[in-house]
Amino acid sequence: MLAAYGNIELVFDAVSSTGLLMMQKKYMKQVDHSNVQMFFAVDTAQELAIKTGYRLQVLTEEPFYCHILRTGLKLSTRLNMKLSDRFSMVKMIHLQL
């Protein structure tokens, strides 16, 4: 059905299974949402493309914070961003149908 619309591209952010665990253990508690259950993670864009069953082409998969300027940010924030990018906890994915 989507193919009828022509060239379709999807761009979205995704959390890996490692990132999901970190969010549940640390960040969700900080914002008082520790009871929220999270079920969906994307470890690799290619894996997601295969699992959908559609002919999706991965155009890009890159660390979430790689293009964000870090000047003026707290050291802890910069470290968290660096760790997230280093271990692919959060990423941007660009797919084409």
Account of the 3D structure:
The protein starts with 8 loop residues before the first strand and ends with a strand. The chain has one domain. The chain is built from 3 helices and 3 strands, in the order βααβαβ. The model has no long low-confidence stretch (mean pLDDT 86). With 97 residues, it is an alpha+beta fold. Strands 1-3-2 form a 3-stranded antiparallel β-sheet.
What attributes does this structure have?
single chain; 3 strands; alpha+beta; globular; 97 residues; three-stranded antiparallel β-sheet
Mean pLDDT: 86
What fraction of residues sit in β-strands?
Answer: 15-25%
Shape descriptor reads globular
SS content category:
alpha+beta
How many E strands?
A: 3
| Count of individual helical segments | 3
Distance between the termini: 11 Å
**Helix-residue proportion:** 25-40%
